[in-house]
């Protein structure tokens, strides 16, 4: 099965706005780039498509070995659709979509189930940090608050088999100060 990973990436200077009370603009940009690089490197054994609107991010993605996909229309769902179309045009048979803020990501193949949609929820079981689905399927995304439940409903409504995959390395995303604290706690445990 030919897998491809789609990673939407915001401009590093615009990313992580919800952490403005905790980190300054330079720290947020650095964190966003470091996390995105971790995610891209975890994906790179596979065909990897970085969907972005920023030429600097596109150049960064190319330098890492990923394929940049331009998407000037704002919105995570639109970015995912744009990346999905690029991956399918490249011959992908199964698509993995990963957020760019997963600091512990190391691989994505373990979440793929042949012929099924799979979901890796965030640690709060609210968001969907990683999902995978057969190329050409009727699955579509609905990111935003409650996306984990929304995605399950979409799979059910489309008549698609699905599985929830709990993966401690992929469940932690960095949106809040509490998330940063959780990352520090986990890093301390492993050191």
Plain-language structure description:
With 191 residues, the chain is α/β, with parallel strands linked by helices. The radius of gyration is 16 Å and the shape is globular. The protein has one domain: Spore Coat Polysaccharide Biosynthesis Protein SpsA, Chain A, CATH 3.90.550. Helices cover 36% and strands 19% of the residues. It is built from five helices and seven strands. The model has no long low-confidence stretch (mean pLDDT 96). Strands 3-2-1-4-6-5-7 form a seven-stranded mixed β-sheet, with helices on both faces. The longest helix has 19 residues, at 25-43. Helix 2 links the parallel strand 2 and strand 3.
Shape: globular
CATH superfamily: Spore Coat Polysaccharide Biosynthesis Protein SpsA, Chain A
As a percent range, the share of helical residues equals 25-40%
Computed over alpha carbons, the radius of gyration is 16 Å
Low-confidence parts lasting 5 or more residues at pLDDT below 50? none
The tally of strands reads 7
What does the average pLDDT come to?
96
Q: Provide the spatial order of strands within the biggest beta sheet.
A: 3-2-1-4-6-5-7
- Under CATH, the topology is which? Spore Coat Polysaccharide Biosynthesis Protein SpsA, Chain A
CATH class: Alpha Beta
- Order of helix and strand elements from N to C terminus: EHEHEHEEEHEH
Oligomer: single chain
Q: Tell me the CATH architecture.
A: Alpha-Beta Complex
Distance separating the two termini: 36 Å
The assigned structural class equals: alpha/beta
- Please summarize the sheet with the most strands: 7 strands, mixed
Strand content: 15-25%
């Amino acid at each position: 099965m030919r897998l491809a990973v789609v990673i939407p990436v915001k401009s590093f200077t615009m990313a992580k706005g919800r952490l403005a009370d905790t980190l300054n603009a330079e720290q947020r940009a650095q964190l966003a780039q470091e996390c995105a690089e971790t995610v891209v490197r975890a994906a790179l054994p596979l065909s990897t498509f970085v969907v972005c609107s920023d030429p600097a991010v596109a150049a960064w993605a190319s330098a890492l070995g990923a394929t940049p996909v331009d998407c000037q229309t704002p919105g995570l769902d639109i970015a995912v659709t744009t990346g999905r179309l690029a991956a399918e045009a490249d011959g992908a048979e199964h698509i993995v979509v990963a957020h760019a803020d997963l600091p512990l990501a190391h691989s994505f193949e373990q979440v793929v189930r042949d012929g099924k949609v799979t979901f890796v929820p965030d640690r709060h079981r609210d968001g969907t940090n990683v999902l995978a689905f057969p190329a050409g399927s009727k699955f579509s995304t609905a990111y935003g608050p409650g996306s984990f439940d929304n995605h399950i409903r979409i799979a059910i409504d489309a008549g698609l088999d699905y599985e929830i995959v709990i993966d401690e390395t992929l469940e932690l995303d960095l949106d809040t100060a509490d998330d940063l604290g959780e990352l520090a706690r986990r890093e301390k445990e492993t050191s």
